[in-house]
Write a structure and sequence with these properties.
The protein is an all-alpha fold. The protein has one domain. Helices cover about 65% and strands about 0% of the residues. It has 6 helices and no strands. Helix 2 packs antiparallel against helix 5.
Length: about 140
């Protein structure tokens, strides 16, 4: 009887560990482009910071050199989408305008090479915060 209990306990422990590890894997979320790049490329934030400031590379160039530009662009899109969805939920951004922004980001990402040229590529001139903070709606009631 004790043997069966040990087997059941070991099985339950294994299952719990498996579920926990899947939850942690699924919950991997980055709070900034720098964290995303570090997680995607396996580099440390310090290494990325050094490349960015001492060698003058953009995050996109670092991702492209590591062969991870598409994964990096996808993660940045998810970060931006989350911010936009929060603004829609709080009522500071209309659903229609949010959809326009998301569509423009997707269009810009399709031609982004990661070089960071102003007004081109992934950001398309929006910047990370999109300039739509409180009081900056440009009078269009968006």
């Amino acid at each position: 009887m004790k043997k069966i209990r040990n087997i059941v306990a070991a099985g339950a422990l294994t299952l719990a560990m498996g579920v926990t590890s899947l939850t942690v894997f699924a919950a991997t979320k980055y709070d900034s482009p720098q964290e995303a790049l570090a997680g995607i490329t396996g580099k440390t934030i310090e290494e990325i910071t050094e490349e960015r400031y001492e060698e003058g590379k953009t995050y996109g160039e670092i991702a492209a050199e590591a062969g991870e530009l598409d994964a990096f662009k996808e993660e940045l899109f998810e970060q931006k989408k989350e911010i936009i969805e929060e603004r829609v939920a709080e009522g500071s951004l209309s659903r229609e305008y949010a959809d326009e922004i998301l569509e423009r980001i997707e269009d810009n990402q399709s031609t982004c090479l990661g070089t960071g040229e102003r007004g081109r590529g992934m950001m398309g001139g929006f910047g990370f915060g999109f300039g739509g903070g409180r009081g900056n709606g440009f009078g269009r009631n968006r």
